[in-house]
Amino acid sequence: MCQEKYVFELIASEIVANHIHLIIKTCDDNETISRIVQYIKARIAEKYNKAMGQTGAFWNERFGSSVIEEADNPEGYLLWLLWYIGYNPVRKGLSRDPRNNDIGFINCYLNKNNSVPFKITLHYFFIQLGNTFEECVQKFLLYEEAYRKRLAVYF
Q1: pLDDT at 68 over 50
Q2: Under 8 Å CB-to-CB from 23, ≥6 apart: which residues?
Q3: pLDDT digits 0-9 by tens, 79-124
Q4: N or C: which terminus of the chain has fewer CB atoms within 10 Å of its end residue's CB?
Q5: Mind spelling out the 3-state secondary structure of 44-55?
Q6: 30-57 pLDDT, tens digit each
Q7: What is each CA distance from 145 to 9, 55, 121, 128, in whole angstroms?
Q8: Domain residue ranges in the chain
Q9: Which CATH number is associated with domain 2-152?
Q10: Secondary structure (3-state) at 34
């Protein structure tokens, strides 16, 4: 619904039991990140309250955000962040592999023909990893390997 209403790029989206991770790229002269997230949160709250027969507040707090382009290494940060978000259901014990998450985004970056119920825009940093989609995937998998090594320290 939000993608039909506003102009922005959804780079990643991962729904977990009690929160959602989004990487959104706003477009010049269009809606702000605050407006986009406000709309998304309102629609989720409406759907949840309707399904549960409830009314009232759904979200406890404002969303957290950071500007990827302001990181010391924006490309490395984004590619790491994609795996961090993709592995969130694994860290929460909801899945053993991000590739098995029915509504997760990570397979859009791993399988050219993957589809999800919303439009994922492959980020420019991913596209720049190689000359073909397959080359991009191979280099992107190196970021997963690095992420998994770091994740293993915690388990």
Answers
A1: yes
A2: 10, 11, 12, 13, 68, 78, 81, 82, 85, 123
A3: 999 999 999 888 888 888 999 887 789 999 999 988 888 889 999 9
A4: C
A5: HHHHHHHHHCCC
A6: 889 989 988 988 888 888 889 989 887 7
A7: 26, 44, 23, 19
A8: 2-152
A9: 3.30.70
A10: helix
**d(C-alpha 54, C-alpha 65), whole Å:** 29
Q: What is the pLDDT of residue 28?
A: 87
What does pLDDT average to over the chain?
88
Contact 39, 6 (CB under 8 A): yes
Question: What 3-state DSSP class applies to 20?
Answer: strand
Rounded CA separation 80/106 (Å): 12
pLDDT at 16 over 60: yes
Q: Which residues touch 86 (CB under 8 Å, ≥6 apart)?
A: 12, 14, 98, 101, 104, 105, 106
Residues ≥6 apart with Cβ < 8 Å to 118: 3, 10, 13
Token pair, residue 3, equals 């993608």
The encoded tokens of residue 145 equal: 């390997």
Q: Please answer whether residues 98 and 149 qualify as being in contact, where contact means their C-beta atoms are separated by less than 8 angstroms.
A: no
DSSP assignments along 104-139, one per residue:
-SHHHHH-TT---SSPPPPPHHHHTT-SSHHHHHHH
